[in-house]
Amino acid sequence: MKLIIAYIQPHKLNDMKQSLYRAEVHKMSVTNSLGCGQQKGYHESYRGVPMEVNLLRKVRLEIAVNEDFVERTVEAIIEGARTGQIGDGKIFVLDLPECIRIRTGERGGAAIG
Amino acid sequence: MKLIIAYIQPHKLNDMKQSLYRAEVHKMSVTNSLGCGQQKGYHESYRGVPMEVNLLRKVRLEIAVNEDFVERTVEAIIEGARTGQIGDGKIFVLDLPECIRIRTGERGGAAIG
Amino acid sequence: MKLIIAYIQPHKLNDMKQSLYRAEVHKMSVTNSLGCGQQKGYHESYRGVPMEVNLLRKVRLEIAVNEDFVERTVEAIIEGARTGQIGDGKIFVLDLPECIRIRTGERGGAAIG
Amino acid sequence: MMDPNVKVIVDTVWVMITAMLVFFMNLGFAGVESGFARAKNSVNIMSKNFIVFAASSLGFLVLGWGLMFGNGNGFLGLEGLFCLSGADNSPATGDAYQGAYSAISWTGVPLFAKFFFQLVFCGTAATIVSGAVAERIKYVSFIVFTFIMAMFIYPVVGHWIWGGGWLSKLGMCDFAGSTVVHSVGGWAALAGAIILGPRIGKFDTGQIKAIPGHNLPLATIGTFVLWFGWFGFNPGSTMAADPGAISHVAVTTNIAAAAAIMSATIMSWALMGKPDLGMTLNGCLAGLVAITAPCALVSVGSAVLIGLIAGVLVVAAVMGFDRLRIDDPVGALSVHLVNGVFGTLAVGLFAQDKITGTATGNGLFYGGGFKLLGAQLLAAASVAVFVFGAAAATWLILKAVMGIRVSREEELRGLDIGEHGNEGYAGFQVFTTA
Amino acid sequence: MMDPNVKVIVDTVWVMITAMLVFFMNLGFAGVESGFARAKNSVNIMSKNFIVFAASSLGFLVLGWGLMFGNGNGFLGLEGLFCLSGADNSPATGDAYQGAYSAISWTGVPLFAKFFFQLVFCGTAATIVSGAVAERIKYVSFIVFTFIMAMFIYPVVGHWIWGGGWLSKLGMCDFAGSTVVHSVGGWAALAGAIILGPRIGKFDTGQIKAIPGHNLPLATIGTFVLWFGWFGFNPGSTMAADPGAISHVAVTTNIAAAAAIMSATIMSWALMGKPDLGMTLNGCLAGLVAITAPCALVSVGSAVLIGLIAGVLVVAAVMGFDRLRIDDPVGALSVHLVNGVFGTLAVGLFAQDKITGTATGNGLFYGGGFKLLGAQLLAAASVAVFVFGAAAATWLILKAVMGIRVSREEELRGLDIGEHGNEGYAGFQVFTTA
Amino acid sequence: MMDPNVKVIVDTVWVMITAMLVFFMNLGFAGVESGFARAKNSVNIMSKNFIVFAASSLGFLVLGWGLMFGNGNGFLGLEGLFCLSGADNSPATGDAYQGAYSAISWTGVPLFAKFFFQLVFCGTAATIVSGAVAERIKYVSFIVFTFIMAMFIYPVVGHWIWGGGWLSKLGMCDFAGSTVVHSVGGWAALAGAIILGPRIGKFDTGQIKAIPGHNLPLATIGTFVLWFGWFGFNPGSTMAADPGAISHVAVTTNIAAAAAIMSATIMSWALMGKPDLGMTLNGCLAGLVAITAPCALVSVGSAVLIGLIAGVLVVAAVMGFDRLRIDDPVGALSVHLVNGVFGTLAVGLFAQDKITGTATGNGLFYGGGFKLLGAQLLAAASVAVFVFGAAAATWLILKAVMGIRVSREEELRGLDIGEHGNEGYAGFQVFTTA
Ligand SMILES: Nc1ncnc2c1ncn2[C@@H]1O[C@H](COP(=O)(O)OP(=O)(O)O)[C@@H](O)[C@H]1O
Ligand SMILES: Nc1ncnc2c1ncn2[C@@H]1O[C@H](COP(=O)(O)OP(=O)(O)O)[C@@H](O)[C@H]1O
Ligand SMILES: Nc1ncnc2c1ncn2[C@@H]1O[C@H](COP(=O)(O)OP(=O)(O)O)[C@@H](O)[C@H]1O
């Protein structure tokens, strides 16, 4: 199993949920996050003092899937989140040796979905 | 070492802290998260417009433990978080090759606790 | 590639950003988190009722780097976050088999930075 | 003698403006109560505090006013019961007055001005209940209870004391409503809080758990608004623009609040090690409630004393109700019930005859003996029995008929979603673990 | 006959205090509108609602007042157009008055008191627009539009109805401004909302999407403040401390709000399964807007009916505008436009001649036939044509000249950063996905 | 001549109601100051702004009033010093007055009305300090300082200008308190801000760091409330219901605020590229402070000019104090100190003799030469020396005795936890990195 972590632009979340549903990926966890990347951030001023904002609002996704779902999930994320502009984000794929469903105690692949 | 990630119902957090203490797991990190799973979410309407809320409030735990603590930690989480109803959540166990305590620079198992 | 997760004191975030920049680590993701560790928390009372606060505000960092950047990143984090006092935090290093840049579809080490 | 037309005009302006200030207190209650509650219940509390005045307005118009001020016996008004339908030749006063509402003919303003002023007081009594039953009561049941409050419970007590009823005949004196408004609201709230039981998690594990309010700045704003509104509540209760009286009342009202803020803050500082903002705010309200009955009947010095005592009482009461395992999320009981009763008795202790014109006889500390104090005690006791009884009966009937408490699941997820399908702070990350 | 000096004094005190209450409504609008919008636009909405009164103050002083009240023809004021520069011997009234502003010489207060009272009304009309165009309009364009509103659109209609213009001559009667203030604001808002188009995401996918407000407690606070301010708006419109009239108006105003709260809440409960707080709040405002024209012209019973209808109308209208794909984030159209028109017509239906002194003739339901109703209808229609036309033209010109809508990127990230470089809630974790 | 009783009544009603509005400004200050601060300090700021009026109420009653208005020499009141204990036959005025407080015998209202009105002004001066020392001062030290302010510093200056002291004898004129209230508060705040030093992180790295406020909607609400309250502050300072004067003052006050809002917004737009809401709000307050002294002494045209200048001054001052490395989290110095001084001088420039009755002689621009301006300058200077000196001494003594600044750890974690053990927004996810 794999644990897929993705950072995307907040306003792409809905599109991405759609594309994931189409890919039959129905389970995910979302947190909001601040990100610093290629996207250089922006300059503002507050009460006359210039301030550089380089931590931008992002949305972080965590999706645990079985091996055979990895590629389609990654593609679905790209499809939903991509704008072609700097700031689109990243996907990280980690190995997931174990997964347990709290309700039933099921383990492994069976517990993922 | 392992990194245990768990998603549970927010209102079970306190019970789970108790059960973890009983299992002598005293260190953890908690963030709040929105989750989409078996639990289908609910329908509401705002100013007359129906809206489907399928991202439900969850609490995300991260607990790094040594191998010998993995099972008891998982059991403690299940004990504390389980209600038997859909939405109870998931536990993900990742390999954790390295752990460092910032204060002392200690590494590995010694740094976990 | 490695995924570095670090929990630090919120007020050290700025120092740490500086030290990471000096180490030429420019990309990161930040979320806020509540942590429970050696730092025992504090006692307060609300409307006459004593309450024990043991989940303290922490900041969680996630930094994906190529192997050759791991050590300098860890050192930079320690340099920036360390006060020598309990509560300084932890660093966890995970293996990161795959990384994709959403914008370009690039994969692996090329996509990290 | 000044031109009577002018007097009617100025008195009406004064009564209307102060009534508006009292109306504004609804905002204050809404702020305090939702600020002291959790974010997940903020919409529900706002809804309750908002609709409560609408319900009171209708209920008091339809029947409440008639029961309270209609000519009748010592216990109830009987004439002109419904919708202000009784004969009335206001602003005529005294013997010149002919109509169904003689008990309030002492003030020379139009009937609608009298009604509007009394209505906002009725609304205050009803809204007090809201805080003590917060975070667990069913919205619909609360609305029904509010109608009962505005149409029966409040007006009956009001008739006893302000409507020419038996207590007023005994010389009991409640200038601006420590009893009529605040302890009436308080007793009804107590009945509700007991019958509903505590919020999940409050006393579960045997010991008392703190459930912090989600927005103390909002609670502070609310308290400021209440303090502001009280300058309508107390000085307005002259129902006439009497320069000496209104300025005296404004000063006693303010200084009692100030003294109570200080004593409550110091008290919580001493007992808890730190000055809890919630206690400072409750202290302010406690002082205001306590001075409500005596504001026009005591000296400024006495007002300071009354305030100091009120501040101490409220802190002790908040902690006491917890010990008694009675869950009052916002301290409504400690503020309105405890200090409503204290303020009523304070009249019996500190009153100085005719200090602003009202003839009360002197209180105990001014050589008046126990006469006045006795009447105040009797009033406090009989109101306690009647209101607590009537309210408890109402709550129990509602419980049997429609239920009064939301489901466990709903309470855990929050009443905002459960009762209203709304979120108070959409988009904000809020921990709903407690 | 009472001392004329005294009358001037008391009337001025009344006019000034009620005007202050109306000014305070700016806070109410700010609270409601930002509370119903998203956190990422809260600074922008606060800025708009704040600067709108500054712009109105300057615009109405420079030209608005003169166009509205200056002696002139049936359509425009022509004398003393600029900066109150006309001759004036206020507080002289009636025939004793000699000056450029005869239309408002019926009230015996100083010129500046008249100006201040009328100014706060002008500001209200301008601020109504703000809500309907929220979350997408360019700040600078909104400011320019506000000047146009305060200097031309509002005063022209005001002249027709309150400035001795052609509609007033036809016997049309709008006591406190359901048409002059609320439907004028509403028509201008409608033009803006249509020309701007909906917010991104509102109707994109074909069906209607809910975009929840970020701070319903704030919206509730705002509504309380508006309700409070309305006691200046309606009773103050007597512009004289007439005891009978002001107390009557206060009661009709309040009871209409109460009735509308109830009917809107029940309506949303029935239609959506749960009582939506937003609908309850809009219901309150709907009742207040609807009773604004008739408040001094109808009985308390009629006020209850008018309120009940208003509450139903507003819920239906909120859902209706969505169906029409007109995006009004805060319900400004449903409240001010729909109920402004309804309230205007309600005068033609429920009016009772001289019920508080104002001679209107009876409405349809009181045997007055269609005379009054006809005048009201004509007024509603002609105001619709003029204001919608003038506002639409203004919006289109602004669109061509400077653009009226922010960029897609800015709208997505929020106008707070884009237009002001500020965050409403710095440090708070807020999901900005929608 | 009108019935003297009636005059007393109407004047008292006016004084009391406007005093209530000024009291309400406490809410405004609390909103502005906490809104501009960080969430982690919101409880502490609310606590300070709340208790400050309680402390002022007690301090001004015990000694402040007597020092300020008691008959005495040019520098201090000496008669009836404590607790309003002096002889007094108010509302008798002029020669008919016999008592210890002759300096304020020009207004014909009861003693308690005078006291209440003056008390709320004293409270305002004390609360101004709160903002400039926010986010780092020890709660207890602030409370002690407040007592010193209310009992000594404020009353002494008050005596000089409003209590028949030496400055008033020189013909200095401060109609509603640009100097007595605002610059007194401002100088005390400056002393505090300097002696406390800047917040951690503000100037650490050599350059200036922005520390964004946590709740700009709350700050906006607060500013609206202050604007509203100013209609009590300035028009109320007539202390008599004089129709011409109160309506004139209301208009000058409002138009100055409007002009300042515009100039401050344009200024920040020009300098920072975007219209900063904080600057717009500060601009409003700057205009109000600047017009406070001249409101009844200048024409509407001059009021516009004064407002425009005030708006520019405040933006420049906010940036200037940063350059000077003086940390004022909410802009209290730029608003109250800078514009308090400017408003005082503006009288010397723009005054028109008897424009609303008050005899001041003309200002420089109206041919009055430097006489009035000189007196204003002297007043500004002497108040600066005395207040800054006295306040600095007080702060330094407090620093030595009990310390005035919280620990570094506490400041980093926030004063809410450290000083009060409370969280402002329990449950909300707030980044406390800054
Ligand atoms: N190496 C990394 N480690 C952690 N988070 C990252 C990393 N690179 C990117 N991110 C996250 O992804 C977001 C988008 O990255 P960015 O570089 O701006 O996009 P792009 O690669 O399309 O230019 C960042 O804001 C950050 O949250
Ligand atoms: N495959 C997954 N990937 C990421 N998060 C998941 C996954 N499955 C479940 N979760 C998280 O766990 C929570 C509970 O899952 P759910 O399926 O509702 O519980 P149950 O398995 O008991 O029905 C979800 O809301 C989500 O946050
Ligand atoms: N084993 C662990 N698993 C998860 N999070 C941890 C663990 N140990 C520490 N943390 C995180 O690091 C933070 C600091 O840990 P703490 O033990 O207080 O610091 P120190 O090790 O310097 O005493 C904790 O608040 C928690 O968020």
Gyration radius of chain D (Cα, Å) is: 21 Å
Helix content of chain A: 10-25%
Ranges of chain D where pLDDT stays below 50 over 5 or more residues in a row are none
Total number of beta strands of chain D:
0
Assembly level:
heterohexamer
Mean pLDDT of chain A: 91
Helix content of chain D: 55-70%
Order of helices and strands of chain A: EHEEEEHEEH
The largest pleated sheet of chain D is described as: none
- What ranges of chain A have pLDDT less than 50 throughout 5 or more consecutive residues? none
Count of separate DSSP helical elements of chain D: 14
| Attached small molecules | adenosine-5'-diphosphate
Tell me the structural class of chain D: mainly alpha
Return the string of H and E elements of chain D.
HHHHHHHHHHHHHH
Rounded average pLDDT of chain D = 97
Rg for CA atoms of chain A:
17 Å
Task: Determine the structural class of chain A based on helices, strands and strand pairing.
Answer: alpha+beta
Looking at this protein, list some descriptive labels.
heterohexamer; A: alpha+beta; two-stranded antiparallel ribbon; 7 strands; elongated; D: 434 residues; mainly alpha; 14 helices; binds adenosine-5'-diphosphate
Task: Give me the secondary-structure topology.
The complex is a heterohexamer, with three copies of chain A (about 110 residues) and three copies of chain D (about 425 residues).
Chain A: E1 2-8, H1 13-22, E2 28-36, E3 42-46, E4 49-53, E5 56-65, H2 70-81, E6 89-95, E7 98-101, H3 109-112
Antiparallel strand pairs in A: 1-5, 1-6, 2-5, 3-4
Helix pairs in contact in A: 1-2
Chain D: H1 4-35, H2 42-69, H3 111-132, H4 139-161, H5 166-169, H6 178-196, H7 216-233, H8 243-272, H9 277-292, H10 300-323, H11 332-350, H12 370-401, H13 408-413, H14 415-420
Helix pairs in contact in D: 1-2, 1-3, 1-7, 2-3, 2-4, 3-4, 3-6, 4-6, 4-12, 6-11, 6-12, 7-9, 8-9, 8-10, 9-10, 9-11, 10-11, 11-12
